[in-house]
Design goal:
about 190 residues, alpha/beta, Rossmann fold, prenylation, GTP-binding, transport, Small_GTP-bd
């Protein structure tokens, strides 16, 4: 009997301060919609999506975390088995940008270097309110050795490329790993 290839599953955990747009990015990616009504995430929300990427079908598990301080103690358990940490800040909030360093440190404390980290500058549609330039975002990301992209969940800018880019890197790592190992995967 021929081995059955496993459906690759990737957990993407979305982290960042309150009101930076984590839920809006996920909603735009999943449903191509934007809701102008703000509603804080309580604890965590979880969504799943199956998509075809390169030569395989992958299942994405998108974990939308609460940004409020009172839920911070729960974050390490959500990070623990993630493949990708998406750390979001609001380009119109310098403090949320400065706090990305804390989020990155928390991810690395929990996962070491065994995780892809993407810093996302969201709300680029707020041109007149921008406090963080794209150059600052790029420089900080280079310095911290993480991926970087700017988005606007409201305008739908750079949402679709955000997640497939992460997954392309994961798929390449997955192929390398499975070419080197002789494991048989059953589903």
């Amino acid at each position: 009997m021929a081995p059955v290839s496993a459906l690759a599953k990737y957990k993407l955990v979305f982290l960042g301060d309150q009101s930076v747009g984590k839920t809006s990015i996920i909603t735009r990616f999943m449903y191509d919609k934007f809701d102008n009504t703000y509603q804080a995430t309580i604890g965590i929300d979880f969504l799943s999506k199956t998509m075809y990427l390169e030569d395989r079908t992958v299942r994405l598990q998108l974990w939308d975390t609460a940004g409020q301080e009172r839920f911070r103690s729960l974050i390490p358990s959500y990070i623990r088995d993630s493949s990708v940490a998406v750390i979001v800040y609001d380009v119109a909030s310098r403090q949320s940008f400065l706090n990305t360093t804390k989020w990155i440190e928390e991810v690395r404390t929990e996962r070491g270097s065994d995780v892809i980290i993407v810093v996302v500058g969201n709300k680029t549609d707020l041109v007149d309110k921008r406090q963080v330039s794209i150059e600052e975002g790029e420089a900080k990301s280079r310095e911290l050795n993480v991926m970087f992209i700017e988005t606007s969940a409201k305008a739908g800018f750079n949402i679709k490329p955000l997640i497939p880019e992460d997954l392309r890197q994961l798929c390449q790592e997955w192929k390398l790993y499975h070419q080197q190992s002789k494991k048989i995967w059953l589903t």
